[in-house]
Amino acid sequence: MTSLFDNIRVVLCHTSHPGNIGSTARAMKTMGLHRLYLVNPKFFPDAQATSLAVNASDVLEHAMVTDSLEQALADCQFVIGVSGKERSLSQQVMTVREAAQEVKTMASHSQVALVFGTEMSGLSNAEADRCHVLATIPANPEYTSLNLAQAVQIMAYEVRMALTTGELHYSEKPVELATQEDLERLYEHMREVLEHIGYINPRAPKKLFERLRRLYGRTRLEKEEVNLLRGILTLTVSPKKHSKY
After folding, report:
1. For residue 145, what pLDDT is reported?
2. Domain spans, the chain
3. How many CB atoms lie within 10 A of CB 237?
């Protein structure tokens, strides 16, 4: 069965810096994308691209290099241009999150392209004209500049969140929480130590222990954590003597 991710390609137009190509490959692979198209890159293949790709060199190895954007998009049915520039006359503009939902709908039955322009000027008007919609990253209006690979990472992340449940790729190790009996023993131990060191007057404890119970009750202490705290309490009363030598 073809994965939705297999129907999505990232297209970089006229990339000047090979490091951005490598960083883009890494950004793609972390989000499950693997189809990279390069339109007339200035330097590729390149050692810097391979270096910054880290363990995503396979994305570079399978990258398609074309002479024009038309070639990179020839078999695509839906094209999203990622751009931060305001245009006087353009297609529909949406946020990358909204665009990712469009990708989810279209990738089930169509080839989808995510198109990025050059590092310095982004998509040209002619390139933007070849896109069905434009997507923009809602950034600080006083400073909207983003590195190319960063923009790819954000778009790829939004696509992954749209296509998946967003669950972690690993399971948290289960922990054993302290029982109520464990906690009561901790509180009693704490009371004894605080009385011993003179922090509280046993005849007038005020509401100190009510506050301590609320404090530790909110933390959902683990069994090991209770043991750790009781160890500290024990050494508070009978500290170990360490040799200076």
Report:
1. 83
2. 4-163, 180-237
3. 11
How far are the Cα atoms of 188, 195, 230, 232, 234 from residue 202, in angstroms, in the given order? 12, 6, 20, 21, 19
Distance (Å, whole) CA 81 – CA 33: 17
For the domain spanning 180-237, the CATH number is 1.10.8.590
State the Cα–Cα distance between residues 91 and 81, nearest whole angstrom: 10
Question: 35: part of which helix (H) or strand (E)?
Answer: strand 35-39
The token pair at 122 is 């982004």
Lowest-pLDDT range, 56-70, 110-124, 151-165, 171-185? 171-185
Q: In this predicted model, what pLDDT tens digit does every residue of 146-164 receive, in sequence order?
A: 899 999 999 999 999 999 9
Tell me what pLDDT residue 128 has.
92
What order do you get walking across the sheet with 8-13 strand by strand? 64-66, 35-39, 8-13, 112-116, 78-82, 133-136, 92-95
C-alpha closest to that of 79 among 128, 15, 25, 137: 128
pTM score, two decimals?
A: 0.75
What mean pLDDT do residues 61-66 have? 97
CA distance 174 to 178: 13
Tokens of 139: 């950034």
Query: Under CATH, what is the fold of the domain 4-163?
Result: Alpha/beta knot (3.40.1280)
More confident residue, 145 or 20: 20
Decide if 48 contacts 18 (C-beta within 8 A): yes
